[in-house]
Design brief:
The chain has a single domain, classed as Serine Threonine Protein Phosphatase 5, Tetratricopeptide repeat (Alpha Horseshoe), CATH 1.25.40. About 75% of the residues lie in helices and about 0% in strands. The chain contains 6 helices and no strands. α3 packs antiparallel against α4, α3 packs antiparallel against α6 and α4 packs parallel to α6. The longest helix is centred in the C-terminal third of the chain and has 37 residues. The protein is globular, with a radius of gyration of 20 Å. The two termini are about 40 Å apart.
Length: about 160
């Protein structure tokens, strides 16, 4: 699994979820200072800024975070075509696609984008756990197939 999330993103998401927006903003900005490609941090920073009253600035980060998550999901599914671990039904990518189209077309509202962004963030959190479970199950199945009786002959030089 190649998805990475820094500790400050995790802290910021938790602070956001508990309504501590100022602390969330600081944590998420710190996460992005450490890893500018942390798309979950971008998404949650955008949500935090938007909920704090600066919707237009927040929207830029929401859009950037969504675009980055979409691109990452596309990449991981193209580079591992036989491992349908990440967003196999395209539910997350379809939702992001719809939101990005609405944003670029100017056909959105604060009442739509913030809950949609929160949904994407929550689904990505759930997807991380689901993908880990699926990968673990596959590893366990592969390991079981390799177990058994075998005879080897070694020749030393």
């Amino acid at each position: 699994m190649l998805f990475s999330e820094g500790i400050w993103t995790y802290v910021g998401r938790t602070q956001y979820a508990t309504g501590r927006l100022q602390e969330a903003r600081q944590s998420l900005e710190r996460a992005l200072a450490l890893d500018k490609d942390d798309n979950l941090a971008k998404l949650y920073l955008g949500l935090t800024v938007a909920r704090s009253g600066d919707f237009s600035s927040g929207l830029k980060n929401i859009e950037s975070g969504m675009r980055g998550l979409y691109d990452w999901l596309e990449y991981i599914n193209r580079s591992r075509p036989f491992e349908g671990y990440w967003d196999p039904s395209r539910e997350i990518r379809n939702a992001i696609d719809n939101d990005l189209a609405a944003i670029s077309g100017g056909d959105y509202s604060r009442e739509q984008i913030i809950p949609d962004g929160e949904w994407v963030g929550q689904r990505m959190e759930n997807e991380i756990d689901r993908a880990r479970r699926d990968e673990r199950r596959q590893f366990d199945r592969d390991f079981e197939r390799r177990r058994g009786f075998s005879v080897g002959v070694g020749i030393g030089f």
